[in-house]
Amino acid sequence: MADTDLPPAVRCRSVVKIYGSGEAEVTALQGVDLDVALGELMMLVGPSGCGKTTLISVMAGILDQTSGECRVFGEDMLHLSARAKLAFRARNIGFVFQAYNLLPTLTAAENVSIPLLINGMNRTDAVKQAAALLGQVGLGARAKSLPATLSGGQQQRVAIARAIIHNPRLVVCDEPTSALDHETGHKVMGLLKQIAVREDRALVIVTHDARIFQFADRIAQMDDGSIVRVVDSPASLN
Q1: Do residues 73 and 170 make contact, with C-beta atoms less than 8 angstroms apart?
Q2: In this structure, are residues 208 and 30 in contact, taking their beta carbons and an 8 Å threshold?
Q3: DSSP 3-state assignment of 225?
Q4: How many helices (H) and strands (E) does the chain have?
């Protein structure tokens, strides 16, 4: 459960993101204000194209906002050098991409081990730790498999394991259960909540999957690049 007495893990104020220019200009975020508390699992919901993925990409330092401020654990990544931003993300952030972004020539365990290698762990220990985590998501027998030999749901679980292997303080996920059946989706959500949501961490999930709403501490509804409302229970969305 979130501790609202502490500074938030993520604080967005008047965040605007504009893509393109001139006639091709698109405003994806229109002055977003949102706090994600430490220890909180926040879900972002809303129609496709409403800015959810753009918002978590700004939070994770993958995209720079056009204006406004987004602080993660007090750090404004917009003003960090490229090297400092990469180092901050490597230590503090895990990202589950909707397209998985697995490297095709690496095994499942090797893909999962990448954040550990970036943070300086030797390859043998990193791959061993990755294989153990794959066991926790039901893929222990596929640790040496290449991504092309895995189903979409299996690739999704590899991507989730890669995002949490280095114990990041902020985990952001783009549709992490979209390719999973009900039982596996709940198992993965239980693991995410157990690992990622602690008193010094936070988890933000973009989802259309109403089956997992029950795992959220709060749900932020977005539309047309803005936060429409933030609720404490799925029933409040009706």
Answers
A1: yes
A2: no
A3: coil
A4: 6, 10
CB 52 within 8 A of CB 46: yes
Task: Show me where the domains of the chain are located.
Answer: 10-103+167-233
* Alpha-carbon gap, residue 7 to 110, rounded angstroms: 36
Task: Calculate mean pLDDT across residues 126-132.
Answer: 97
Question: Contact at 8 Å (CB) between 40 and 2?
Answer: yes
Q: What is the pLDDT of residues 178-189, one digit of tens each?
A: 888 888 888 888
How many other C-beta atoms can be found within 10 angstroms of the C-beta atom of residue 76? Answer: 11
pTM of the model: 0.90
CATH architecture of 10-103+167-233: 3-Layer(aba) Sandwich (3.40)
Whole-angstrom distance, CA of residue 238 vs CA of residue 222: 14
Mean predicted confidence (pLDDT) in 56-67: 95
pLDDT above 90 for 66? yes
10 Å CB burial of residue 155 (0-12, 13-18, 19+) is buried
